[in-house]
């Protein structure tokens, strides 16, 4: 009877909607413990083996969800060192536990102190050291391994980060330029988790684009889970702001923000979250240019966009940033128009190439000075 009751209850429960299933994980809390040190053998002055350590190793193509699935109870314990014995005076070391984590993971301790930033493939760190083996110094008793809770925080690594308020057309663009298949709809917050797409070029070069869920005013203070999305911008090489040329209104209760106000608001959100983000190279895409009246708006706003500081006075006070963004380029587009989309693709690539070249520009005077310092006054003359 009880079984029947349970079955009936189960069958009436609505299945979770796949759209809301949290498939994207970007934080994870794990308990890690190094192995216990083995005991020494006092009679022979033996030394116990050291306990194994817990390592995190960054691997491309992994997700935090896969990490969770591969672990039991979100706990990782390395094995203990062996005791020393008559046959083996030095006990064998405990076996290390190497846990593979996605590239881009930052590891924090319980006090939110950064332990490691694993932002390259094969980068590794010890998160829990093994206990030392028993020896004369420890009265031949092995010591326990390090035992701690660590928090993993994944920040996506992509060449380009698409940033904007909801409904601007970010997912439409990502779908048009890359292999990603994001959900697109005419209501805000269609994208609820970051998506990464790869843009492939004819010469087989590719760049990665992260579509971040729409921000809202107050994102810097974590409104609308702003921090969860803004943190991913930190690791992108180029920020691409996307704004609806007709502006955006979150709901009838919120004021309508025109295109300029949207740009200032995005600028301000970034500034309040982390002012150093304003130094990052950025491109502005003005979307929905296919709609009637778009070109008239563009003619009006373009001079101000080219010099954002000049329009600060007209900007509503609550959106006014202290420091304005300087865009590498401003491109009017329609994410629904394939010709424009192709132009965006090449524009993004050109900008990334230019940025890479800028990074490697060598200041010859500086190099000369450094060389001179290295060879010293008696060395050959540096010309
Ligand atoms: N007319 C026109 N409509 C567009 C264009 N780009 C996107 N849209 C429409 O705008 C709506 C929102 O597009 P999305 O791509 O979902 O916008 P989003 O910025 O990803 O929105 P969130 O997921 O809420 O962040 C959809 O109905 C799109 O069809 C465009 O270039 N022209």
Automatic annotation (TrEMBL):
GO terms for biological process: ribosome biogenesis. It comes from Drosophila ananassae. Keywords: GTP-binding, Nucleotide-binding, Nucleus, Ribosome biogenesis. It comes from the Eukaryota. Its main location: nucleus. This is OBG-type G domain-containing protein. Residues 22-157 form the Obg domain. Belongs to the TRAFAC class OBG-HflX-like GTPase superfamily. OBG GTPase family. The gene is Dana\GF15477. Residues 158-353 form the OBG-type G domain. GO terms for cellular component: mitochondrion; nucleolus. The keyword ATP-binding does not apply.
């Amino acid at each position: 009877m009880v079984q029947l009751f349970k079955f009936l209850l189960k069958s009436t429960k609505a299945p979770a909607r796949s759209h809301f299933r949290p498939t994207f994980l970007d934080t994870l809390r794990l308990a890690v413990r190094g192995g216990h040190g083995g005991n020494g053998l006092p009679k022979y002055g033996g030394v116990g083996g050291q306990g194994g350590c817990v390592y995190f190793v960054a691997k491309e193509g992994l997700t935090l969800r896969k990490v969770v699935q591969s672990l039991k109870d979100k706990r990782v314990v390395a094995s203990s060192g062996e005791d020393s014995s008559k046959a083996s005076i030095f006990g064998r070391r405990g076996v290390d536990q190497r846990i593979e984590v996605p590239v881009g993971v930052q590891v924090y301790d319980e006090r939110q102190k950064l332990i490691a930033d694993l932002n390259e493939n094969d980068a590794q760190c010890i998160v829990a050291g093994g206990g030392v083996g028993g020896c004369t110094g420890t009265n031949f008793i092995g010591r326990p391994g390090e035992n701690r809770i660590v928090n993993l925080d994944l920040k996506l690594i992509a060449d380009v980060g698409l940033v904007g308020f909801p409904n601007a057309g970010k997912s439409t663009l990502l779908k048009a330029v890359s292999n990603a298949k994001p959900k697109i709809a005419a209501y805000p917050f269609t994208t609820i988790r970051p998506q990464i797409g790869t843009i492939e070029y004819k010469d087989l070069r590719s760049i990665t684009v992260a579509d971040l869920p729409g921000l809202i005013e107050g994102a810097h203070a974590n409104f609308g889970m702003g921090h969860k999305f803004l943190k991913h911008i930190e690791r992108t090489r180029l920020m691409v702001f996307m704004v609806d040329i007709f502006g955006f209104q979150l709901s009838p209760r919120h004021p309508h923000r025109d295109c300029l106000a949207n740009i200032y608001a995005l600028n301000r959100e970034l500034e309040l979250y982390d002012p150093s983000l304003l130094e990052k190279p950025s491109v502005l895409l003005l979307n929905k240019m296919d709609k009637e009246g778009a070109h008239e708006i563009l003619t009006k706003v373009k001079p101000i966009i080219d010099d954002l500081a000049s329009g600060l006075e007209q900007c509503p006070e609550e959106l006014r940033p202290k420091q304005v963004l300087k865009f590498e380029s401003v491109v009017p587009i329609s994410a629904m128009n394939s010709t424009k989309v192709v132009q965006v693709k090449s524009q993004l690539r050109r900008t990334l190439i230019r940025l890479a070249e800028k990074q490697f520009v060598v200041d010859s005077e500086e190099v000369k000075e450094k060389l001179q310092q290295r060879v010293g006054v008696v060395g050959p003359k540096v010309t």
